[in-house]
Amino acid sequence: FVSLCNDRVVMDQGSPLTASSSTTPVEDGKRAQALRKAFDNSLEKTTQAASWEKVEKKFSELIPKGSRDAAKTFLEQYLANINTNVKAEFESILEENNVIPLLNKLDSECVQQKGNPPRKRCTSAGDVDKVIVALKDTRKYKQELLAMVTKLRKENKALEIELAENEKTFIKTQVNKKDDEICQRTKDKLKQASDVAAAELSAGRQQTLEMFLSQLSNTNRE
């Protein structure tokens, strides 16, 4: 690209593609005008995306200072050539596919239809009815699902309460069990103490103590 600019070589525009002129031109109707307007806007935005200002901004370091005018001229001629050829190709497509007459016919049928009674509904209308029924069924299913979710939430809440109560009961049972074990150990110790006291109060034990006290008394007298 830079080399072409330095040598001031200008691209040959050539002969643009032209649509066949064998048929009589047809005046554009409402829809045909809208189609051309949309095409023109799209083509304009496309060429603007490659304008000299944007190219110079993006590739300023690649364009030699002494060749900027030649590069600008080259780009403008290149875009003009593209613009001409694309428009010619678009016109060729319109003509080959008889697009403009068909759009004009559609315009006429729409105008006529405004004053006539509605036609019999096509099969797609039946499909629309099916969709409406399906939507109603969907709402019904949605309500049923919401009811099921609400019920499950209530059951889950009840289970949480029951689980909490069971946990409290379990803890209380464990505490009572521990208390029972303490009471049993206390009873065992009391029984053991009672047995010891009973042994101390037995006749044999009393006789032994009396003999010991007698001996102790005699020793003190001596």
What does this structure look like?
This protein has 222 residues and is mostly helical. The protein has 7 helices and no strands. The longest helix has 78 residues. The protein is elongated. The N terminus is likely disordered.
Number of strands: 0
- Beta-strand fraction estimate: under 5%
Q: How big is the Rg?
A: 54 Å
Could you say which overall geometry the principal axes of the C-alpha atoms support? elongated
Structural class: mainly alpha
Give the N-terminus to C-terminus distance in angstroms: 146 Å
Q: List the total number of helices.
A: 7
Low-pLDDT stretches are 1-22
Largest sheet, in brief, is: none
User: What share of residues is helical?
Assistant: over 70%
Would you spell out the secondary-structure blueprint of this structure?
Blueprint: H1 2-6, H2 30-48, H3 52-58, H4 68-96, H5 99-114, H6 123-200, H7 203-221
Brief account:
The chain is mainly alpha-helical. Helix content is 78%, strand content 0%. The protein is elongated, with a radius of gyration of 54 Å.
